[in-house]
Amino acid sequence: MYVVDADDVAHDVDRLPPRAARAFAEFRAAVELSPWTVAPSINPDNPYAPVRLHLLQSDDGSALISYLVRDLERIVDVLRLQWLG
């Protein structure tokens, strides 16, 4: 299991609409178990790159989440959460 560090985006998470907040909780649970399979690399030339980009979708709207997988430490850093509406 991985530890998810979302401290840098906590303010953004708090501002999500209710259904999007639930979708974020589901995203978080998924990356705790298998961060490599939740989203593709942001670099199409390197599918094993540790920075990933996930499109979060809910009935309230969508958000982009970028995260970094630090495999040796078993940590996932959520770098950015951008609400798209």
TrEMBL record:
It comes from the Bacteria. This is Uncharacterized protein. It comes from Actinomycetospora chlora. The lineage of its organism: Bacteria, Bacillati, Actinomycetota, Actinomycetes, Pseudonocardiales.
